Amino acid sequence: MARFPFSAIVGQDEMKQALLIAAVDPAVGGVMVFGDRGTGKSTAARALASLLPPISVVEDCRFGCLPEEKGTCPDPCSSGRVRKRPVPLVDLPLGATDDRVVGALDLEKALRDGEKSFEPGLLAKAHRGFLYVDEINLLEDHLVDLLLDVVASGENVVEREGLSVRHRARFVLIGSGNPEEGELRPQLLDRFGLSVEVHTPQAVEDRVEIMRRCDAQERDPDAFTQEWEAEDRKVLGRIARGQKRIDNISVPDALLEDTARLCIAVGADGLRGELTLMRAARALAALNGKKTVSRAELVEVAPSALRHRLRRDVLDETGSTARIERALEELFG
Amino acid sequence: MSAPLGAVDPASEALLALALLNLAPAKLGGAVLRGGGPVRDELVERYRAMRPADAPWRRLPPLVEDDRLLGGIDIGASLAAGKAVHEKGLLAQASGGAILAPMAERMGAQLAGRLAQALDHGDFDFTLLLLDDGLEADERAPAALLDRVAFHCDLSGVRALESMSWPGALPVEEVAPLPADMLTSLAAAATALGIDSVRALLFAATTACAHAALHGRREAEKADLDTAARLVLAPRATQLPPSEAEEPPEDPAPSDAESGEDRETAQSDTPPEDQVLETALAAIPPDLLQALRDGTFARRAKGSGSGAKSRSKLRGRPLGARPGLPRGGARLALVDTLRAAVPWQKLRERRGSASITVLREDLRVKRFEERATSVTIFCVDASGSAAMARLAEAKGAVERLLAQAYATRSEVALVAFRKTEASVLLPPTRSLTRARRALAQLPGGGGTPLATGIATAASLAATISARGATPFLVLLTDGSANIAADGTPGRPQAREDAEAAARGVARSGMASLVIDISPRPRPDAEALAKTMRARYLPLPLADSAALERAVTAARDAAVTA
Fold first, then answer.
1. Which tens digit of pLDDT belongs to each residue from B395-406?
2. ipTM value of the model?
3. Which entry of A190, A325, B130, B412 is 20 to 30 Å from B390 by CA?
4. What class, spelled out in words, does domain A6-52+87-198 have in CATH?
5. CB–CB of B307 and A182 under 8 A?
6. Could you give the 3-state DSSP secondary structure of residue B301?
């Protein structure tokens, strides 16, 4: 099935921005998307993955090794040839078993040759790309813990069925969930760099536009892709320039101070909030072609970077987003 | 009772839906057929007859494992042949055809997740017919799948199926794209009905085109939009448009015929885009319409996918096996153990035994998932006397308890009673967001049907026990009943009925707590607590800490009992 062009997605600006930030600086951490079903969450993630330029991989390497990392994974990984491969986007289905996720003994090889060999799981597939977990709030707790551990360490360590394997697994974790159907543990939420709220556009014109574009895409996917190619190329250019620029962007001391003050004002737990806020603001500055990070970027990313880190207060009806906006208003006017 | 305007016989509607599905199977995903007994079987057969004779047709066993679903290694054949024998998964086998999922209301999250993913990706290209035998409102097919199939057909109470046919159907690709004004009316109707999913919009547009194709038209017309509104939008409504919702809530159960007339007069001079909405409104199933009118509609975010689950060694739905020894109550998973032993047979042959050698490290034990062990049911007296007293404080207390329930990962449910009836405002859930909203929207005022309130909570508790969880009842009332179980006013009878209901709770042996919310505690509530064999706690004397202690103590007693 042809992928939907990223720039043809109607609305969803906050989510698109968060995904672009994660693409420019994966160290920001994953993106958590809150929203109802059928609001285009996975479409946006998929669209971004197919937009990004293909990655170079050692031929026949099941662990997606970079050419310069040749031979450092559990595979033989000895081919001198390099293949281009699209940026992977791996779907983690609800109810996936842990052996599907981390990988397991290759039963076929074991039966055929009596040989102990490792069959990579979804984590290996997602290396250097995106891991999309739909309805992450319904995922079994032990799997969530496992994912967090891998995201934090960038490495998947398997010790099971007599296997002892470790391989790189660095990916941007995108989780989606509907808070109506069960809460996510605060520890898990905190691990996500950014969080966004997605709603279906309520304006009728936007909805009509969605229907029109989906229909056009279904009738003639190639023509539709072509129609949006120029726009998509612009987005790609922004990402590429952002990636190049990000290391040279300076963060003024005054801005660091602002970051700390904001986090204290909203009561965001832990240091992760401040770090992510600073990183996300820098990535946004890079995307926008700036040389230094300014308060404008800070204000723009603050809701995404902080809304999921506020301590919950059952008796406070005010939503997290409103609390952050209030604090921004008070601190920076 | 005369059928409301636009309402057609549900069986014919379902047949029409299946005919449309047959024209655009990949775009419409599938259908849910709820209830209907023999008529449903006939519908399924009719759909099968519409499909090409060689199209695959697979029935899904309720507990299918990933290997069977997605394909994998056939263990039996592999052992016999001494080499790996692959088998094709059910999804691959069904490619280009249909998958029938019986008992869809019992489908687990794992299977639903797999199917949803397969539908999204279109790798296998099958249509999904979900057969839903749920009786209760919250027994439904998993929400993830409901969102991904176009048609939700409720067949309950349907007895006969008329024969219908549509000669001269065109391929759906030959129908021109819907013009802007038609797209606008569909989008406007969806917005007015509170339908958020973009999938629903796309389904509606495709349905309109498919309906035009079915009747041999190359351009869609109003009848096609109406069909899309009836079949796709109406069953997904989560709210009534403002004018409808503003109907005085005091209006005693408006009859369908009456509201049908209202619409008829309204329709004559409404612009076309509102007519689509009118059609959708007229086709909203009666029970859903009533819930939307009453404002008791909890967004249907249920489905067997949600809710807390815990792993248990002994009961529940099977999960994958784990390495381990069959002790501490864990049961041996024979097949998984053999599967674990298979790879090593060649090596173990050297140990000299002829049969399969199973060693200790091969042993696998079964794991099961089980519903959360405790569900706290808050049964709140929202009558006038309670509202005068301390409904607000009671709500505050419930919120505190909710926060605590969240911390202990248990589920909560909310029952409220006022005027002449009681209703389950919130089926068991773990979501704080939903619970808080249900509580905030709780209106106060009217009589006190205490007996009905207790009985409703008790029957909910029975459902919860049947699922294997432990219910715990928290009744917040001032104990002064004035509406009897049959809904008539009168203190003595009301009192008697309430005591009877309370005795029922006592008989069931369920742990319970009565919180007296009257400003000056009277003997009423305390006597009621005694009859219920419940702990009694007057709220005026209890600060929040005492309240929490009491609930925790009572709940712990419930769980360990």
1. 776 777 776 666
2. 0.74
3. B412
4. alpha beta
5. yes
6. coil
